[in-house]
Design a protein that fits this description.
The protein is mostly helical. Among the domains are: 65 residues, lambda repressor-like DNA-binding domains (434 Repressor (Amino-terminal Domain)); 47 residues. 51% of the residues lie in helices and 4% in strands. Strands 1-2 form a two-stranded antiparallel sheet. Strand 1 and strand 2 form a beta hairpin. Helix 1 packs across helix 3, helix 2 crosses helix 3 and helix 6 packs antiparallel against helix 7. The longest helix has 22 residues. The mean pLDDT is 80.
């Protein structure tokens, strides 16, 4: 039995829906679905929480044969240009606020800094600079197993569902 099957079996034995389990773990129902169908795996802390909520040991939850060689992507998961733009907006906002409260100040310039800060922050918040990708991209390349037909992360050396070994 693999990790996803163990979660699903124990969840169903307890009479919980995916939504119920998601609420207990403070994650989305889609996350539970991804764990159960094997397209994602939780981190160690979340696996411990799952074992506590379901009343199952980590050893029973994660079998030895299912530990893949996983190397995370080196690319950042967040578009840093948006963060830079938001920080610039915050700086202008703080500068404008400081200049407005200063006694001998050009109020026109202070108001300009304040309003420019608000606009730059909002633009950085809602409009990613690189429109070809989302602000946060946590998707991993997927492959379909020729034996069982299920999808899973591309970097598994064998299918986590049926054990089919890929010849690379």
């Amino acid at each position: 039995m693999n990790f996803g099957d163990a979660i699903k079996k124990k969840r169903e034995e307890m009479g919980l829906t995916q939504h119920d389990l998601a609420q207990k773990l403070f994650v989305s129902r889609q996350t539970i679905c991804r764990w159960e169908n094997g397209t994602r795996c939780p981190d160690l802390i979340m696996a411990k929480k799952i074992s506590l909520v379901l009343g199952i040991s980590l050893d029973d939850l994660i079998p030895d044969h299912e530990l893949p060689d996983y190397t995370p992507s080196k690319e950042p998961m967040i578009d840093l240009s948006c963060v830079k733009m938001m920080l610039t907006g915050i700086f202008l906002l703080v500068l404008g606020t400081f200049l407005i409260t200063a006694d001998e100040c050009n109020m026109g310039f202070a108001a300009f800094c304040f309003l420019a800060g608000i606009i730059v922050f909002i633009v950085g918040l809602f409009i990613p600079q690189d429109r070809s990708k989302a602000i946060i991209d946590d998707t991993l390349p997927q492959r379909t197993c020729p034996k069982c037909g299920k999808n899973h992360d591309f970097d598994y050396p064998q299918c986590p569902h049926c054990g089919y070994e890929y010849s690379e």
